[in-house]
Amino acid sequence: MSTQQDRSGEFTYAASGVDIDAGERAVTLMRSAVERTNRPEVVGGLGGFAGLFRLDVARYRSPLLASSTDGVGTKIALARALDRHDTVGIDLVAMVVDDLVACGAEPLFLQDYVACGRVVPERIAAIVTGIATGCTLAGAALVGGETAEHGDLMGADDYDLAATAVGVVEEDSVLGPERVRDGDVVIAMASSGFHSNGYSLVRRVVDRAGLDLTGTPAGLDRPLGDVLLEPTRIYALDCLALVAELGVSGVHAFAHITGGGLAGNTVRVVPDGLEAVLDRSTWALPAAVSLMESHGVPRAESERAFNCGVGMVAAVAPDQADAALALLADRGVPAWVAGTLSASDGAASARLVGSYR
């Protein structure tokens, strides 16, 4: 039998690598999880050709729509290696909604795209259930998505993920470098692990060092695979709570710490003429990062490829720092004052000083 013909000799879509029945079963399995993400503004349900969301314009004076698109990257390879697919969906949501909230936007809804070599309904349902969990944590509705089976382009167990989220922010409440001032305090919010960045480097270290994903290396308190698959912390609602409590006069900017590291992302919200100085001694380097360094990753590379324990930073007015820390503590987000912004000559800059605890 050829790859495009069934036993009768006829060409079929299933024999070509696309199983429509499996796709429909996957939708059935994920339906309840998706429906739990609904917000009152969602119109219609799963199964339409487009997701509909009613924007209540009466709530806003001058609304701006914000959008963000991202994926999970090669962390998926570890999910496949461990055959655990229920957390990478959370990572996917985090990558887009935590970018959205950096400008002060409230995530409204999200759509996902899953490309795979073969639709295994239970696996697809696990992935999308994770996406739905992430949406719930972010307060966003999952209004639709697409699962594409690419049997002749991808291996049977291969898949990749992407998503786009849309949010809204008042035009006069947009956060960013324009609001940041000399004397502002930089508050760091702890990461939950590597999040979804640096995994090409992590995987190379694991491979070259012969590390066992099911084992527990010295310095870690659980199996390495569990540490590496820890889902990304979703900060969206915590950041929005800060803005709601302190206002844009108190919270000036957020920076989502992804590829490029802490300094490389913080500088994106620093205006020319200011410098962010971040003190390493205010937190401990995560054990998993130390493990990577013990197997040959230089410190300078760690601080560019990994978040090194900080997943989000906020630039806040100095008289609001204590209130910001108290609110984050109440919400269960470990946070601390990591640095300050001060005047400098020339272009915006951010640098790390001191040594980790």
TrEMBL record:
PurM-like C-terminal domain segment(s)? 181-346
**Localization, UniProt:** Cytoplasm
Q: What is its EC number?
A: 6.3.3.1
Annotated PurM-like N-terminal domain ranges read: 65-169
Q: Which GO terms describe its cellular component?
A: cytosol
- Record's keyword annotation contains Ligase: yes
Report which reactions are catalysed by this protein.
Answer: 2-formamido-N(1)-(5-O-phospho-beta-D-ribosyl)acetamidine + ATP = 5-amino-1-(5-phospho-beta-D-ribosyl)imidazole + ADP + phosphate + H(+)
Q: Does the keyword Cytoplasm apply?
A: yes
Single annotated GO MF: phosphoribosylformylglycinamidine cyclo-ligase activity
Which key words are in the record? ATP-binding, Cytoplasm, Ligase, Nucleotide-binding, Purine biosynthesis
Question: GO biological process: any one?
Answer: adenine biosynthetic process
Q: Per its UniProt record, what HAMAP family does this chain match?
A: AIRS
Protein name in UniProt:
Phosphoribosylformylglycinamidine cyclo-ligase
Q: Which species is listed as the source?
A: Modestobacter muralis
- From the UniProt record, report the name of the gene that encodes this protein: purM
